[in-house]
Amino acid sequence: MTRHARNCTAGAVYTYHEKKKDAQASGYGTNFQRLGKDSVKNFDCCSLSLQPCHNPVITKDGYLFDKEVILEYIIAKKTEYSKKLKQFEKLKKKEQDDAANQIAGDMEKRVATFLKNENNIVSKPLDGFKAGESTPLLFHPTTECVIYLVLESSKSSISNMANGKDKVLPSFWTPGQSHQKAQLKAEKPDSTIYCPVSGKPLKVKDLIPVKFTPVNEEGKKSVFAKENRYMCAVTHDILSNSVPCAVLRPTGDVVTLECVEKLIRKDMLHPLTSKKLSEKDIIIMQRGGTGYALTNEKLEAKADRPALQA
Predict the structure, then answer these.
(1) How far apart are CA 39 and CA 280, in angstroms?
(2) Which part of the chain is the Nitric oxide synthase-interacting protein zinc-finger domain (predicted)?
(3) Full-prediction pTM beyond 0.85?
(4) What's the pLDDT tens digit per position in 242-278?
(5) Strand 121-122 to strand 145-150: parallel, antiparallel, or no bridges (unpaired)?
(6) Edge-to-edge strands of the sheet including 134-140?
(7) C-alpha 96: how far from chain center
């Protein structure tokens, strides 16, 4: 029986408790840590640059971007598409040239085989038992001559470099003749630009301008330097990550979701312009996480480290 002590080393089994304790002390295993406030995007920050938006726009799915940043992203994607399209056209032309060369090569082989067979047919008697001579093939009754077939005098070689095969066999030190060289297939690139966050198709005309209502506070501080920067355009409640918000499409005003449920959805009228609204005109803003567990789902960071084996 082993010794029951704090630093017992006489046990025959490496227990789970000992393994977990050693992993924690030595730095092996996997770390799970909940993201803090500094790692979470604010509701008024761009989803790409993670900085406060100077000219905010929102997609129909509720993702906020800075107009300059999202336009640069779209231009970069269009440039990437044009490069891929040129590469596709180049590969397509190469495939067509290879197919034409293959057809021409097959035709040349067929012609060479035909001429070789025609040259092997002779009309004079030869000794068929000698190398390089011909043997009788058939008798033509009208011309009264025997057609002979010439026998090949060249000896067959077992070398894989004979008869011009040295130019056909692959070369492992030449990239163009290696077995492992994968032939690139011409695939036409997709011209659709997708949203970097939602992965859905994105167009410039779908970007909706957003108008935040700044908080009126005394002082010369910049709007971006304030902790409470914006408020609801209707109720003047302070907006933050813990307050669900929505954007009204016709004017771009940002209001709280509570204001939408209690005031706007009753008559479906814009509270500032009194114009009729529809469900498509109310865009729910996608916000960052908070300290509450039900606000967001993926707020846990995972870091893999070397595994400690028994």
Answers:
(1) 32
(2) 4-78
(3) no
(4) 889 999 999 999 999 999 999 998 889 998 888 999 9
(5) antiparallel
(6) 121-122, 145-150, 134-140
(7) 28
